[in-house]
What does this fold into?
Amino acid sequence: MRANWKVVLPTVLLALAAAFAARAHHSFTATYFEDRTITIEGKLLQFMFRNPHSFVHVEAPGDDGQMHRWAVEWGGAGALAGQGVTNQTLRAGDVVKITGNPGRDAADYRIRMQYLRRDSDGFEWGKKPGESFQ
Amino acid sequence: MRALVLCGALAAAFAAASAHAQIDISGEWAGKYHEDFDDRVPGDVQGDFTGVPMNDAARRFAESWDVTRVNLLEHQCQPYNVAHIFRGPMQFRIWAEKDPATQSIIAYREYLGTYQQYRTIWMDNRPHPPEYVPHTNMGFSTGEWHGDILTVTTTHIKKEFYRRSGIPSSDRTTLVEHYIRHGNLLSHVMIITDPVYLTEPYLNSEEFVLMDRGNQNWLYNCEYVMEVPMDKNKVPYYLPGMNPFIEDYAKKFGLPFEAVFGGAPTMYPEYQPKLEQLMKRR
Amino acid sequence: MTRVAPQSAPRPRRAAAARRAVTGLAIASLLAASGARAQSGSPFDGTSPERVSYSASDKDARSGMDRAERTVDGVETYHVQGNVYMLIGAGANVAVQVGADGVLVVDTGGGAKRAAVLAAIRRLSSGPIRWIVNTSAEADHTGGNETISQAGQTVNGNPAAIIAHENALARMTDANRPITELPLNTFFEPSRDFYFNGEAVFLYHPQNAHTDGDVFVYFRGSDVLVSGDLFTTTQYPVIRADQGGGVDGLVAGLNQMLDIAVPKYLQEGGTYVIPGHGRVCDEAELLDYRDMVVIVRDRIRNLAAQGMTLQQVLATRPALDYDGRYDSPRGAWTSAMFVEAIYRDAGKTTSGKQRAAAK
Amino acid sequence: MSAHRRFGRRVALASCAAVLTGLGVQASAQPRPPANAPASPKAGAPIDLTGYWVSVVSEDWRHRMATARKGDYESLPLNANGRRTADAWNLDADSAAGAQCKAFGVGGLIRQPGRLHVTWADDDTLRVDFDAGTQTRLLEFASTAQPSGEKTWQGFSRAQWLRPPQAGGGPARAQIGNNTGPIAPGGGGRGQRGGPELSPALAEGGSLKVVTTNFRAGYLRKNGVPYSESASITEYYHRLPDAPNGDVYLDVVTIVEDPEYLNEPLYTSTMFKREANGAKWSPTPCRTAPPPAGPQAAARPAEPLPR
It folds into this structure.
């Protein structure tokens, strides 16, 4: 796994989107290390465009060198729709690069989406690693 | 001209003097979050137990709470119950069901945008149902007016949480609400008793403002999916004393964990000197 | 458990429940789920503001009886869903399924109230009592067997047939129960099913759970589970090691019921569960109970693995967070007894299948 | 004054009279105090607020029980100026300047953990003593009372009882859902045809409205979050119906409008529980405990409403 650990300030925009998309499902801050980021690259297995939060499952290597099914948590369907994301934006088989906050339990292989890029057509969402809106 | 100004002033005063009579609580109300915003809306780090009169049983439950439990298929779409839902991001609609023959209000109905929950507040003095009937997230509610204060008592509430930090509520919770309207402001007070997890009543009060231009934010659907791959029968938890995140809130804000986790004694003025001493030692 | 999301199809065995779950995603269904259930047969069924009934009454919507009419000598009747009613106040809960084919009774309560149980059944249906199912050999679940059976009749003219797992029959035989109380229609396989009153009825046998002779029942059309003592809302689960019970089997049984139960909307309604004792529940409460048993079991096993004696384990109050809800210090099954049962069960070997299911 | 202007003035006055008459008619349609309404605010108080009340700090705990770090203005709709000012807070400088009471002024005092002792100073003045900071507020019901020229920490408070509609004045509005005017039980005028038997509970209680002006600038919170002298502060005091366990609670809703520091009105509600006596009454000087050591908080500012 190409993991670049760095401190990233939480952004107001994403926090706000999370806040009202979350609708009290759970606290992102309590679930992920918001002061760390991790990057994975792999093949998209499933895109669950739904509430309370959308999820993207990606097959990518973990730091043990083995392939894992990573669960990447995204905004709720309503919040993402407001940002132009639809249930057809991503498709199984897409090769994507995702940067986000790692889950507090490494064994869960989960990430809170901060940035996604699909090289095949240059589609991007969120803020690039290290970028801050503040 | 001066006369018209005087007239305007008198008219305004007159209007103000008679403005208080409004007691119709019908309408669409949007929450204000000027208290405990981080806990109520986005959620903060794990371990905010401040201001809740939790007992030792609630502490043990909270110690064991692993936030990933809400990712389980059976947990991921569980709504807040009625004793908690007013603390989240919320807008709700109230309307009256009236008897066409007498125009008496038989019940108030509420539609809560969060989780699309409906409530019925019976105003016809009917008794609460026997204990053996199913409990629901919104419970069974009866109401009565005390002057311009609508007091609602709710039982038969499902177990849930008082905080996402893992402070549990039990199915023996009784909620007493007070609705008080002043103009376009609706004050909502909750007095929660729970013999299983609280040592004394837990008080919450929220403000709602009348929505003057509506909003599309009324729908909430939740689709069950395997959010995070895991054994479908797994129950995420921490063994007592093994929760690595329980002190995150205390550490983030420079507070003594003993105080954050202290329950009712920490909610009264006389605790301030002790808190200051504890903070000095840090 | 199987969940029904638009992108996933339900397994055939659960097609009926799946259809209900899909329907349940509609707001109208939500109203029925959240409104009607807590209102004890209220005419304001909460399904929509336009369908408000303005009279305050606790008449049961299905039977038309008010609460007094639904009570016989302290045994009260509550319509759960579909063809299924619950009788409360006879010891263990009694489930009664009524329909064109007659009456099926799950458990018969303690002996002291057997006449009241029969009278309550008769108020629901004058049809023949064809079948009785015992969820275990417990006296407070089987005490009315003789009375109810003798009042019934199978199609070939015998008293109503009593069905149970064969281990339950063995336990009752060992206890010298009269032959008229014994479940002579037994089975030994993991499940048994048949069709009665227009719906499929499934009997499942979780191995080594509360005892080694447990059965829980699922009425597929009515969408009601009858759990027996695997699940109660009044106390911790009773694990009878002396009768082949075990905590892993209990957890496996609870997980099996969770696989069957499907909520109507956001963890509410849908499949209802009649517990061995206590109030009617849905999947959410069954889930909390399962979580509780797993968490307490694992705490005790962790302490036992550290070499703690039973007294040392008890001193840590491993079920402290649930004692306020499930301990019954003056009851027949206390928190300490529950902890001891799990502690002594810690070294017991279970089948690989059970271990997997109990994870 | 020319005849033309005299005429115009007459027209204006006539219009004014008509408007006021109309308002009067409208006002008369609103519920009025009962015919035997007592003469003084004290004797006619619809609720009894007197006695000792202790704050129950179940909300904003870290901002109320403790002193939060500088820059931690969670939940508050501060504008840029408000944040800049809060970020410049210096507790030592306040102490050196003798401004320790800035956190105990009318804009923040109600949020300070402490006890209230409510008494009637006279028939027209409700006195509220706070042991936190040893402060006193006088809530003036008499229209003749006027603020002195000097601004004070607690300012000048104009009080008004808000009474529920009385029998004959329309308590049934709540019960029958008719909010346009009174109705007579069993039938009556105004084109209405009767209603259900009225519950006496509909005429119970009331609330107290207080509007405060003429105050010095101070802090909304202990950690220097400011309010200005030009703010408008309105409060509603609600004595809640007795709880089933006998507890008596007071809910004080405070609305602070301060364009200098706030983007929108600030709404808080503060809960108190009645105490049998003053055994725990403990006056303390204006003093703010130091915030915890550590970096200035990077608290998330209050977000706009989900509307």
Observations:
- The interface with chain A takes residues 5, 7 of chain C (CB under 8 Å).
- The first strand of chain C starts at residue 71 and ends at 72.
